[in-house]
Amino acid sequence: MRLYVCILPGYDKWVTSSDILSTIGYDNIVQHLNNGRKNCKEFEDFLKERAAVEEKYGKDLLNLCRKRPCGQSEINTLKQALEVFKQQVDNVAQCHIQLAHTLREEARKMEEFREKQKLQQKKTELIMDAVHKQRSLQFKKTMDAKKNYEQKCRDKDEAEQAVHRSANLVNSRQQEKLFVKLATSKTAAEDSEPVWWVREPPSCLDSEPRHVHSTADKAYMLHVNMLDKIREEWQSEHIKACEVFEAQECERINFFRNALWLHVNQLSQQCVTSDDVSQRHPEYCGSACWIH
Hints:
The chain has helices spanning 2-7, 11-14, 24-67, 76-165, 172-189, 201-206, 215-291. 84% of the residues lie in helices and 0% in strands. It contains seven helices and no strands. The longest helix has 90 residues, at 76-165.
């Protein structure tokens, strides 16, 4: 993750979100990679368009020097000079057409590299998407277990309060209904506690409650532990993904930089070739015209 801490503004804030389901840090890394491929695509399109311009210019020069007459009635050395001149124009045209082919080849390499990186990123994203889905699903289960546990506890507390309020009731039938309700709620909330006190509530309710583990509590804790385990797995996969993305981004930057350097050198070579051809024109034409 070292690279992303350096090149992505605020990355340290993205990965320290308090929301356990937050993927903002991961999403921004993926977005940065997508932007990188977009930049490669833009350069690729630039090379293709430059190739089209070079090819059109070269073909226009060829049509000009092959179809357009230029001093065809001249004789002797001046005629020879004109023929050399047109041949040099033809050579320049061929150089531009060749440059167009070279640029298209470089664009093809950029496209292949970009698609290769896209496939590599997709593999990592599939793994991370599965982990994110598993984490979200377990979080939902944990929240449902928490709600169930809290509801069972509330039911038990309400039943106990109802029994206390009915202590002075003369109607034993109503008391028995409350005791049964309390027993039911206690069974649901504290499954391991015996219910022998259903018909003897006062001494049981006044006594110190024993430490018991309810079924709802156990289910809730089980989901919490599972969620923490999944969180650790997600963290591990996230670190692996960042390492893969870092290597991928380093590779992209190096490839892009080399492609740009090569392109500039190709343009420089084209200028040298054109300049070399152009310098031979006045030398030959000057001597030819002097002799003529």
